Amino acid sequence: MQPKAVAKVQTNSFSTATKAALVGLMALTLVVLQTVMAYAKPESLAPLAEKISPSVVNITTSTLVEGRTGPRGIVPEGSPFEDFFREFQDRNRENDDSQTPRRSSALGSGFVISEDGFVVTNNHVIEGADEITIEFFSGEELVAKVIGTDPNTDIALLKVEADGPLPFVSFGDSDMSRVGDWVIAMGNPLGQGFSVSAGIVSARNRALSGTYDDYIQTDAAINRGNSGGPLFNMDGDVIGVNTAILSPNGGSIGIGFSMAANVVTRVVDQLKEFGETRRGWLGVRIQDVTEDVADAMGLENATGALITDVPDGPAKDAGLETGDVILSFDGAEVEDTRGLVRQVGNSPVGATVRVTVLREGKSQTIAVVLGRREDANGEAQPAQEEEPETSEAPEVSSLLGLTVTPLTDEMREELGASAQMEGLAVTNVEEGSEAFEKGLRAGDIVTEAGQQKVKTIADLNSRVDAAREAGRKSLLLLVRRAGDPRFVALTLEEQ
C-alpha cells in the first residue's frame, strides 16, 4: 500500500509544479505580446508628428477667371416682353461688377524636400494657377514658382526662396513597404488647415489610369485638400504622395491612393535637373501574353509582352518585329506589358539596352538604343509594303466564328485602312462565338494568322491546318481596328 501512497504524493507534487510553470509561461507570453504590440503600434504618434510636421505645407493657388455673362434666352425671341427684358439686363450689367474677371482660389498640400526650398505636390493642385502661395506649419507664407510638372504621374516640383534653411523630409524606399505597415498622412483636408491621419498600407502596386502608375493604397483618411501631401512610414520617411481617393460621395471611405516614392523620386530628379521628364522610349505596341495566346504560340508560360506593331522608332531600327515576345529588358525579366512600360520609362534616354525576345520558338537578344518618349511623334504609321497585283474575285469564307473576305480598295477606304494594308476583312462575327466574346466585330481586319501574313482565304486555311498539325489547340490572329493592332487567340474546332 505504501508505494501507492508515495505515487499519489508524487503525482500531486508534479501537478502543482506543472500549474506553476504554465502560469509563469502565460505571464511571459503576455509580456512578449505586449512588447510586440508596442513595437507594432506606438502608444502615440505625437513624437513623430512633431518631428515631421514642419516640413508639410498648405498650398493655395489663385487663378484669374472671366466673370459671368448673365442669363440668356429667358424671354423667347419676338416676344412682346423682349425689349423690356433687354433693357432690364442692360441696366443690371451697368450696376453689376460680376462681368469683370475674378480670382478663383484652390487648396492643396505639399512637402519640402530640401533645405533650399524645393517643394513637391500634385500637378492637378497647381495646374493653370497664376499665383501659388506656400503656407508653412509656423504660419509663414512664401510665393512659389513652378520648376516642372509631370501630368503622367501627377507630380509637380515647386521652389520657394526663404531667408534661411527650411525643415525638410526625405524619401524612403517605397518598395520596402508591406501590406499592413503603419502609415500616417498629413495635409490640408477640406481647407481646414494642418491635419494628421493614421492607417495602414492596404495594398501595393495599384494602377488607376496612368501609364506609369504605382500607387500605395491606404486607409489613412485622405480628403479633398490632402492632394499633394506626404504619406509617411514610422521612420518619418515619405513613401508616397497622396493623390486620389475612391469614393461615391467625394469624402474618405478608407480607400486612398498615394503615388509610390520610388516613382516620384525619379520624376523629381528629372524635373530638378531638366525642368521636364525624359523617359526612355522603345517604340513598340504591345499586349499581355494571356493563357490562350501562350497556347497558340506554343509558349510554356503566359509571361512577357507580345509586340503587336513596330512603327518607325528605336525598336524598328534595332530589328524587333511584330510577333516577337519580349522576355527580358536590360537584364530584368518582363512579367507583363505594364511592367515593361515602367522599365522602359525608367531607363535613361540614349542608353543601349539588351532586349531578349522569343521569335519563332527561338530566343535571341537584340541591342536597342532608346529614344525619348516625350519626343515621339504621336501615332506612328505602320511600315508600308508594295501592293501586290491581283485579279481574283473576292472570296467569302466562314471560319472560327468569323466571316472574312480579302480586302479591296473600297473596303480599305471604308475601314480607314492604308492603301498598302493587306489582309482579310471581317464582314460578320457569329454572336455567341468565342470570337464575339473576345471582342471581334465586323470591320476588323485580320493581317496575320499563326504569326504569318494572310492575304487570301487560302492563306488562312493553310495556317489553320498548320496549327492543327503542330498539335496547337488555338490559332493566334493579329487583328487591326482603325489601325490599332492586337493579338487574339481563337480555339480550333476538332476535326
Automatic annotation (TrEMBL):
The organism of origin for this protein: Sulfitobacter donghicola DSW-25 = KCTC 12864 = JCM 14565
SUPFAM superfamilies, alphabetized: PDZ domain-like, Trypsin-like serine proteases
Query: Can you state which reaction this protein catalyses?
Result: Acts on substrates that are at least partially unfolded. The cleavage site P1 residue is normally between a pair of hydrophobic residues, such as Val-|-Val
Name the segments for region: Disordered. 372-396
Active site positions:
124 (charge relay system), 154 (charge relay system), 227 (charge relay system)
Protein name from the UniProt record: Probable periplasmic serine endoprotease DegP-like
Q: What are the PDZ domain coordinates in residue numbering?
A: 271-336, 400-482
Its EC number is 3.4.21.107
Q: Which InterPro entries match?
A: PDZ, PDZ_sf, Pept_S1C_Do, Peptidase_S1_PA, Peptidase_S1C
GO terms of biological process kind: proteolysis
- What are the protein's GO molecular function terms? serine-type endopeptidase activity
Alphabetical list of Gene3D superfamilies matching this protein: 2.30.42.10, 2.40.10.120
Family label: Belongs to the peptidase S1C family.
